[in-house]
Amino acid sequence: MPPIVEIRDLTKTYASGHKALKAASLSIEQGEILALLGPNGAGKTTLISIVCGIVTPTSGSVAVAGHDVLRDWRAARTAIGLVPQEIALQPFDRVLDTVAFTRGLFGMPDDPALTERVLRALSLWDKRQARITELSGGMKRRVLIAKALIHEPRVLFLDEPTAGVDVELRREMWELVEELRAKGTTIILTTHYIEEAEAIADRIGVISGGEILLVEDKAKLMKRLGRKELEIELRAPLADVPASLGEWSLELSSDGERLTYNYDTQGERTGIARLLSDLSAAGIVVRDLRTKQSSLEEIFVDMVKERP
Ligand SMILES: Nc1ncnc2c1ncn2[C@@H]1O[C@H](COP(=O)(O)OP(=O)(O)OP(=O)(O)O)[C@@H](O)[C@H]1O
Description:
- It comes from Halovulum dunhuangense.
- InterPro entries: AAA+_ATPase (IPR003593), ABC_transporter-like_ATP-bd (IPR003439), ABC_transporter-like_CS (IPR017871), ABC_transporter_ATP-binding (IPR050763), P-loop_NTPase (IPR027417).
- GO terms for molecular function: ATP binding; ATP hydrolysis activity.
- Residues 5-234 form the ABC transporter domain.
- The protein has a 6-stranded mixed sheet with strand order 6-7-8-3-9-10, with helices on both faces. A 4-stranded antiparallel sheet has the order 2-1-4-5. It has a 4-stranded antiparallel sheet with strand order 12-13-11-14.
- It is elongated and about 80 Å long.
- The chain is of the alpha/beta class.
- The chain is built from 10 helices and 14 strands.
- It has helices at residues 44-51, 73-78, 95-105, 112-121, 137-149, 167-182, 194-200, 218-225, 272-281, 296-305; strands at residues 5-13, 19-28, 33-37, 59-64, 67-68, 80-83, 155-159, 186-191, 203-208, 211-217, 227-234, 251-252, 258-264, 286-293.
- The chain is 32% helix and 28% strand.
- It has 2 domains: 5-209, 3-Layer(aba) Sandwich (Rossmann fold); 226-306, Alpha-Beta Plaits (2-Layer Sandwich).
- The structure holds adenosine-5'-triphosphate (ATP).
- Adenosine-5'-triphosphate binds at residues 14, 16, 18, 20, 38, 40-46.
- Adenosine-5'-triphosphate binds next to helix 1.
């Protein structure tokens, strides 16, 4: 199946001269949940805004459900729902009208049964006659989601859906995202919360300084997260790693006093017992051992730190 969203060599230079995106490319498969992780100012909102037709790209192309977002913008827009970061709602409108009106904006006839389904799914049905101003922040955010879903988009963009929301509501949102995906909706969310990406995404994309640094299957990334380091402190410094230990791919510190062994915690065996016996057979005396696990957070921070 062709990707539902195809982003190719997308760049955006704002009028200020700021390069918010530098040749970003990304393919999003139908039915997946992709989390875009990145620090403030990385270019996440710019990327989403271009896909949704709110910002014009400087160069590159984006197609949604096979429709170019510039040439064929109407068809592309119909395939997309966007839940923006900022809560922008008319304070005195009623919940039901706000949501139903949005469907009209897409040139679609009113569908009271669908409106009820969407509002019920978001626990807003009891509040349908409330004015926006009478709602809590979390409820307002759910109204934004209802507005984004009411024209039955195939792709839903959530720009930091749980920023400033309490833990309980955050979990409710995650469940909702999972339900939508089960119905076949493709979901792209941006987030600062690594645990959010871990909890719900199928794939994780890391963006920093306008570049997509990595897009990887979460399970694979978790495997990488599962890597551990064993630091072996030696009684006497080594000039080189002996050839008999070649199979272990050990790294020797520049002062020759430490060896580092990387291993996969999810593998059946770590090999540490055999490594220690091989070290002893090579006449190497170990003074101390330390293990260190790299977390997704560390991987993320390291990747992002290397960029300007
Ligand atoms: N309209 C604009 N004019 C000029 N610069 C802009 C404009 N919009 C965004 N930028 C700049 O582009 C860069 C990327 O911004 P963007 O909002 O895409 O980042 P982000 O990854 O969504 O950040 P955050 O996590 O803070 O929401 C930032 O440096 C921002 O200041």
